[in-house]
Amino acid sequence: EDVPSETFDNKDYFCGKETFPVYESVFTEEGETIRKIAIEIEKPPQIEIHVWTIRKGILRHFYVEKLSKREFEELPYFKLITRTTLSQWKIFSEGEAQISQMCESRVCRTELEDLVKVLYLEKSEKGHC
User: Fold this and answer.
1) SS3 of 4, please?
2) Strands 20-29 and 58-67
3) Where are the domains of the chain?
4) Cβ contacts of residue 52 below 8 Å, gap of 6+?
């Protein structure tokens, strides 16, 4: 007898929590690194993109933009890096706000890298939720 899988409507569930795709785009332009982290949210259906402009390791500019799914699909360079829960995304967003203030005057390469790691969920074995 087939056991029903834990994916409903083709969505991934992590310990019963719905997960959302997270994308990343990184490119360098005129000595600046532009790093974009995007999450695809279903309600309302949109893509939230967090854009970091980094020059010599210092976060020079940070902003958030929201696009429709169709507009996002037309953008180049984005690749799927993980799936995350909304609670992890909230931790990421709050940490990002702190880092954006902290890193205006000093190099913050490791802080930004560590912040992105928050989005990666550790796969739990069944029964360990």
Assistant:
1) coil
2) unpaired
3) 19-119
4) 34, 35, 36, 37, 59, 61, 62, 112
Question: pTM of the full predicted structure?
Answer: 0.80
**Residue 24 neighbours by CB distance under 10 Å:** 16
Sign for the pseudo-dihedral over CA of 51, 81, 72, 26: positive
Q: pLDDT per position in the chain (129 positions), as tens? A: 444 444 344 456 667 778 999 999 999 988 899 999 999 988 788 999 999 998 887 888 889 999 999 999 998 889 999 999 999 999 999 998 888 877 777 777 788 888 899 998 876 544 456
The two three-digit tokens of residue 89, written as one number: 């995304």
